[in-house]
Amino acid sequence: METIWKARDLGREDGETLVEEIVMDCGVSPLTASILIKRGCGSAEEAMAFLEPDWEDLHDPFLLPDMSVAVERILTARESGETICVYGDYDADGTTAVSILLGYFKEIGIHAFFRIPNRLEEGYGMNTTALAEVKAAGASLIITVDNGISAVEEVAFCNAQGMDVIVTDHHECQAALPEALAIIDAKRPDSQYPFSELCGAGIAFKLVQALDQAQGGDGDLMGYLECAALATVADIVPLKDENRVMVSLGIRTMNEGPLMPGIAALMAVSEIEVVNAGNIGFVLAPKINAAGRLGEAGRVVDLYLAETISEAMPIACFLRDENKKRQDIEQEIQIAAEKKVAAEGLYNHLFMVVAGEGWHSGVIGIVASKIQEKWYHPVIVMGIGEDGIAKGSCRSVPGIDIFAALSSCAPLFESFGGHEQAAGFSLAADRIPELVKGLEAWGRAAGARGHLKKTLYYDGEITADAVDEGLMEELSLCEPYGIGNPGPVFKMGEVNATDVRRMGKNQDHLSFTVDGLRCVGFGLGECDARVRSGAVSLLCKLKINAFNGNETIQPMVIDLKGDPLMDHQQAWEWVAALKKEEGESLRALPIWHYPCNRLLPERNALIAVYKMMDFEKIRALPFDDVLSHCPGMNSFQLLVGLNALNEVGLIEFKLKRGVIYGKKCKTNEKKDIQKAPLVLKLKKYLGSTD
């Protein structure tokens, strides 16, 4: 995957002056002040609010559309003794939103129950069979959470059955809105709410906040805020504006001692003592999501509504075990999907669409995310059921609106919905080829391929000796980090690494030391040869690593770049030019200042490469993995060698997106690699006679 590094600038002409003002008024370092500006703070006052979020920073809930109507109807239902059904979704956001409303309704004396569709049997959103059951259970009012904005027919069904519907949702609005009594969605075209990026549980919390205000405003809502904070991180919405306030305050109360026994139990089984956005997203939230993915979403509501730790602990243990099951299923599908990507050459498509029979619909979203991270393409993963219906989960890259892409194919779907970067749908499996064709057509018209180069932004350049406790304390002021408020990324230029090691079960990860700092790069194991070859530049985040009671600062490497001869994309361009050009244009290539031993391939290393290939079957070999088996050889030398082996008839190969696809050629003749045209040409221009 090709990456482009860019330094974030202050983005304003008065940036340097504003840095000085923030330093003076907020008592932070110039580095922290610059980070605050890069995160959108336009004044010292805004910077202070960013650093010290407060309950008073929450927006007036009655600014949300139809909030007054919804509050009046709910309080009327309480007065008249009606039964309310909270109709939710099975993910962490939806189950948390259900729990917030149910907990509050119980507190203020409203009789309510919940209905969450089974992910495996019913899929996302409202359905008339479930709604008929809700009616039979005695509900006269349905409140949706984290769904409903596209349920035009289902709301019409409720109206016909004499049930009022209040929709609370945070998803994008489609052309037609349901004819509900109230629709609370900050993304409504007519919304005047100052922030549109709340999650479903965030909207549910705003409804609770409005109900509390309507009754005098003296309720204790901090426990519900804890829940909303957890869901906000889990649903990967931007951690800015009101979301930042909710998450900051929620994490603060969790670390003071969670008010919700269910959250305390979940922290205990996860062995988390100090909560932050990172471990919410990667440790707590997956356990909550796992239940819904595997058809047990109701257990999450049980956890949140537990009144004691002893009641909550068995449920938390159940969720932990369900998450382990989810991980096993996910890994199995991940392996199968990756094989399909390689075998079918899906990396050549704009949209990487992969499907498998029986793939668990509860985990395909995670698989899609991992493939997207690896290849940096929009990805759609589908599980095909016995009924011939494919349920798909989509993940995109910045600049490519997956919801718009799906909308262009709307007639194909039985249902679909989502956001710019993530979406889901169901359609008949025999229409998958039409979907692929339609998405590619949309992508061409939208010029989407221009967004397939990943840009990595960094906030500043630092040296290893500048990394100390003081810097870490400053950076902690800007937490919580997440989408919309990314953790600061720093560039370390031209560092020499020692003690380079691959690590992990599959040797996928990398660790090395730079001036006493132990650096770790997840997913960068194949870059070990590049790091060993000489000075490299790093992009990294800094974290505190606690182990056996000791704390150390650890750079977490996001990306690295080394010697241009080690960059296989650059080397490929140079080798292509070496084969094509002659005379002055060839001499203009920037390779000639390198010594011969850095350009000509080593014979023994090429023998090792040759042995990695088979005669009959084409093997897919990650470029960096092949390079790691050739100590002392750089990318340019490897590519010259591969071309030389090809020219003398020993192998056939091609290089696509960092993967070598090659096989041996059968021959009875003895071949001399040194007589390959490319090697002879390179020697000629080097003036070498070796």
Automatic annotation (TrEMBL):
SUPFAM superfamilies: DHH phosphoesterases. Residues 353-442 form the DHHA1 domain. Keywords: Exonuclease, Hydrolase, Nuclease. GO terms for biological process: DNA recombination; DNA repair. Coiled coil: none annotated. It comes from the Bacteria. Residues 458-559 form the RecJ OB domain. Pfam families: DHH (PF01368), DHHA1 (PF02272), RecJ_OB (PF17768). One of its GO terms (molecular function) is nucleic acid binding. Residues 84-232 form the DDH domain. PANTHER family: SINGLE-STRANDED-DNA-SPECIFIC EXONUCLEASE RECJ. Belongs to the RecJ family. This is Single-stranded-DNA-specific exonuclease RecJ. It comes from Eubacterium aggregans.
